[in-house]
Amino acid sequence: MPGPPGGVLGGLGPAAAVYFLRRVVELTDARRDQDHVDLLVWQFGSVPDRTGFLQGRGESPEPALVANAVALERAGATFISVPCNTAIVWVDAIRAAVGIEVLHTVEETIAAAQAAVPGLTSVGLLATDGTLEQGIYARAAEAAGLTLLVPEPEVQERVMAVIYDGVKAGNPVPRDEFDALVDHLADRGAEAVLLGCTELSVLLGDLGIEDPRLVDSIDAVARATVLRGGGTLRDPA
Question: Has residue 233 been placed in a domain?
Fold first, then answer.
């Protein structure tokens, strides 16, 4: 039986929040309502843009992220999931403000890649400029003994266009554009490609893509959420 409620700290795009919750449900081995994990969802789309602040635009999202985490703990959450990669820049501040576990989305994603590809040595990363510039995946990959590959600058511009002009803006993104980004990193030597932005996770679902090279950060933290919440994962077969 699932245990006490976990908390989901929002402050990301609404589409990504909905997709994350859907994946938690889909990944849970449940035969009835009571088999699903209990969650308190604190969704604040008004949290300032993480990448924008890291690039010198707008206000810091840290106060809002910390306040929301504190609110979740006070509401009874026993752990917190943060389904936003760039927000992990502030994970230490969030952890310092609460007395409950805060899952590390980036580390969960790296671990998922290692589990998916035995003997993994190199991974590619599709993520926002803010995530790349802060080096949160680079540090996690190094700690895991992996080489991290990122897009060439002109390709990274296309990644940002897909995220901001496409998914965040509610505009369609052609399948061949997404595939080209993945192929670019595979051609550079990536044995697996990490989707280190929740909007890319949404796109993966919208396009119905099944590519064994891809490791989705939303799925990684969703699986961790199910397990921390006392649930059982559905057999992928």
Answer: no
